[in-house]
């Protein structure tokens, strides 16, 4: 990343020691810097507006305003359209993970993830990709499929997808990376990435995390499907 501006990271967690540990870790990376720390979701939203953060590492549970509501406010603010949210949860079975992704989070990790993995996750999300850890993603999908609620509205753009784009979307929704999807379909990684970009454009999705939600809630992937 020579010559590139460091990723401006805002840390939001109600535990002071956790924030301090994350701050030391982030500051140890030459390609990122901590521009603020918040103890509540409301503080995170306020600081996102004043500190010009590129990415917020957001705890899903906080007082005053939790991480989900804070993310929802960030997503609704046009001035903060470029701010990414990486949600953290204590348990990868957190029942609010689906809601966090709907609210606009670009991905999530469990708090006990390895330091190097957290830094890689920040880089991934800051670069415009989403991040869904394999284990939690499988449980996320299982919860969506078990949900008793009626299927959500089908996005208008779903009918506009080509057969190949539907195949790519199905693989992305199951947690595969562009490279993995390309291998399954016999495509080049660049072609797979192009398909993903087009799919996001047609569905009006912010990132891959939103594609997961769209694919399962629209019924593109049915319970028990292969």
TrEMBL record:
Name of the protein described by the UniProt record: Response regulator
Asked if the keyword Transcription regulation belongs to this entry, the reply reads: yes
The keyword DNA-binding is annotated on this UniProt entry: yes
Span of domain Response regulatory? 8-126
Which SUPFAM superfamilies does UniProt cross-reference here?
C-terminal effector domain of the bipartite response regulators, CheY-like
Q: Which PANTHER family match?
A: TRANSCRIPTIONAL REGULATORY PROTEIN NARL-RELATED, TWO-COMPONENT RESPONSE REGULATOR
Q: InterPro entries recorded for this chain?
A: CheY-like_superfamily (IPR011006), NreC/VraR/RcsB-like_REC (IPR058245), Sig_transdc_resp-reg_C-effctor (IPR016032), Sig_transdc_resp-reg_receiver (IPR001789), Tscrpt_reg_LuxR_C (IPR000792), WalR-like (IPR039420)
Keywords attached to this Swiss-Prot or TrEMBL record, sorted alphabetically, are: DNA-binding, Phosphoprotein, Transcription, Transcription regulation
- Show where the HTH luxR-type domain sits: 154-219
4-aspartylphosphate found at: 59
